[in-house]
Amino acid sequence: MGTIVGRHPWRVLGLWLVVVVLCFAAAAGALGGDSLFQRLTSGEPTVPGEARTGRDLFSESAAKGPATMLQVTGVDLTSPAVAGTVLRHSDSLRQIGGVQQVANPFVVPGGPTAAAARSLVAQGDPSRGGFLTVVDTKPGLSKAAQRSTESAVTAGLQAMVRDLPGARGHVGGTSQLVSQITGQVETDLRTG
To answer: Which residue has the higher pLDDT, 120 or 41?
Structure first.
């Protein structure tokens, strides 16, 4: 091989140049099909085997779908204005197609000071000025319906925060977390 390269250096260089151009064209999708960059995607991280089987069985038997949560801080939980605003937005959230239930300390009988609301109040103490709203979706929604529902719920939760004077809020949930992780992985794959 060394003898061939030594006797025909320009032909070998030309052959390698053609191979490199063809490989780049194939990666860019110029030879038909998707480009390499269109195929660099990532899905939800899973591990095959018993863990995945158990998760699938649990998901199939779930009485509710994925939840979207809102953590609110900086409000007076004893204020009737805060209670009215949260209850009004809770009713609006329940009207969204695909929503199964809305839970926060204001929909619990007895309000934020009730023992049943303790898990939804910051550190179990209404004087801390924070609470959690959990919106569960119906199980078995199609992916498109689930995305649409989650988008509408997120918008509704953000509107709740805007209507609460001095409030700060953070919306999140498992599907949002997985979406952000996989989106970042795809971006990193393309950069790499």
So the answer is: 120
